[in-house]
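Anyone able to model this chain together with iron/sulfur cluster?
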Amino acid sequence: MKKLNVNKEACIGCGACVSIDREHFGFDENGYSEVISNDNIEGDATRNAIASCPTSAISYVEGDTNSDEHDCEHCDHHCEN
Ligand code: SF4
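re: yes, here you go
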């Protein structure tokens, strides 16, 4: 399943994605964007938010590559979640 991912190292906290698509993006405690929902993520608002990001920080990822539900025993990534 596809999910949204925000690259926090690329995000500059401009707020464009949050203002365009409040259903899916919000601010974290540091003022950077975070994904708040992965429901219906392929609508126009979401695509516009992704296209409007000045640093291309938002992307779609396959659910099992950056998911808080995945099985970490087979994964070397250091997850934030
Ligand atoms: S549009 Fe891009 S840079 Fe701006 S807050 Fe959203 S993810 Fe961060």
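The first strand starts at residue 2 and ends at 6.
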